[in-house]
Amino acid sequence: MKHPDGMGTGVFLIGLTGQTGAGKTTVSKLFSENGLAVINADETAKAVVAAGTPCLRALSQVFGQAILLPDGQMNRKAVAAMIFSDPVRREQYQAIIYPYITQAIRESVRQFAAAGHRAVILDAPTLFESGIYRFCHMILSVIADREIRKNRILSRDPITEEQAEQRIRAQYSEAFFRSHADAVLENNGDPAALRQHAGELILRIQQETDLYHNHLNLPKEEPIMDQKENLKALKESLLTQKKHAALVLDDAQIAQADAFCEDYKVFLDRSKTEREAAAYAAELLEQKGFRLWKRGDAVKAGDKIYTVNRKKAIVAAVIGTDPLDSGIRLSAAHIDSPRLDLKQSPLYEDSELALFKTHYYGGIKKYQWTVLPLALHGVVVKKDGTVIPISVGDDEGDPIFCVTDLLPHLASEQVKRPLAQGIKGEELNLLIGSRPFRSDEGSDLVKLRIMQILNEKYGITETDFLSAELEVVPAGKARDLGFDRSMIGGYGHDDRVCAYPALAALLDTENPQHTAVAILTDKEEIGSEGNTGLCSAYFHDFMKDLSAAFGTQAHTVFANSQCLSADVTAALDPTFADVNDRRNCAYLNYGVCMMKYTGARGKSGSSDASAEFIGKMRSLFDNSGVIWQTGELGKVDIGGGGTVAAYLANLNIDTVDVGVPVLSMHAPLEVVSKIDVYMTYKAVAAFNAS
Questions:
Q1: What's 11's domain CATH number?
Q2: Is the model's pTM score more than 0.70?
């Protein structure tokens, strides 16, 4: 006797399959009329691709809107024509839909088991293709002659003879169904013979069911091979199974992840500062039909709205069909990154070189910022309020800048410093020029020449630096990393690598049940202080205004809301693995990372998500095909770091951190996996739709 797990239910599971047009539905009805519980996989398949389901969204992402009808339902004729005529697309389709069907069937089997059924018939035309046969204790195949089957198909379905032939050719052969079945029913048009054979099989099923349940209750020595198979199954069912995502996804899914990251790299290149990130995000929102919204403006279900806070932070929302006080689905990420800021009086000359004084922003290793190509981005605001945008170093033909360092031959004293002091903060001076103003008189002629250039190009004077925000960032574009192009190297992954998936997920959100909201915030790298950071009131005020528009209050909305705080985490670096607990850290290519807590040493500064909320997110991600992992920021006495999660949890919102694992975090060049970036998008998209 076979010993599959029956989907973990204790039910004797019989797979009923066969050739299209062979009359499997007729056989299924005979079993049902004789008291056997029957699950119709075709009906299950229809249910999992109903309008708005995760499965249909996944299919439409891969195959496009052509598979949808105007009302959001699947265009079954278009899908059938596609999968029966194109084997490659059929495989892509099956790879997406079968996990959803399997999950739904498992739940149906559980329900029959709870109702006291000891055996269940699974009527599944794609029993083998879907892999569900592995769960079955017995397999029955229904077959018929080819011409009979073709005539039945033509009389049943409004298709052409060629389309009927396509369907027949798309299935396994009669020899396959015979060789892979425990019993075969031939249905060539004799109802009495079919009924008699079905009755005989019902008796056999009853006997096999009794044997199966007796077997479950009898302790006995099993063959060595069965022991090994059962041990493997037991491990798979009871122990956590971690696997590289590239071994789980098919080629089409990996290609989809790579394609998503091409758009992400554009976002990264256009978002060297929080101002640029906010401006580009607003541009993308406008393209997708979002409109600027303010207190008092009309708003209704289905509306797409956004607001910009001081050109550095954005709140955007898609209004759901449920009342607002049922809670929102909130994702939050920050768009500021570690960098060097110019001081208010930055320009000086020394030894006939012109330099800018800087003050580093956020947690950096100062020595990493020397002898790199650097760019200057930001704004200068003149006394009359005129805003002058500055961007030098990233366009082709632009000059670059750098922070200099000592050559090794002269660094004998420098190298004796502790690593953290190898380059001191006051030594992060940006080299910007060396040619003097043409004059034999006066001092600071190189400085004067630089100021002359800036005045001619931007109309600014040295005093205007007092009201400037100019950021020194690595020059150059984000690029694929590795011979296999599986990673992205670039500046600003922390946290734009989470901001873009959160934004993209909201851009793709249509008519959600709960209102979906995304925050792209500033100042996280320096504690979220200031009026563009999440310690300020701007998000709370937005929600108060939105709540008022729907006749409710923000605190009521927050109490029923859920939040994914989308921020990066540290990936295991094998070169420096001793700082991590390998059992609890994140790995590149293992999917989006969910962190129950961040903080440092005793979880200080952490919101520490509840077990109940973690359980909900586990279920959501698993059911939505999201590959995910857990992680933490280093060993207990070593690691630490905070996110915006604590500030949102303080509003009485269920909150957990999710994000992309990063190598070389806070460095001028950080590294992420393309698959992890895409899985973060999938996680937020599933969350918005939940």
A1: 3.40.50.300
A2: no
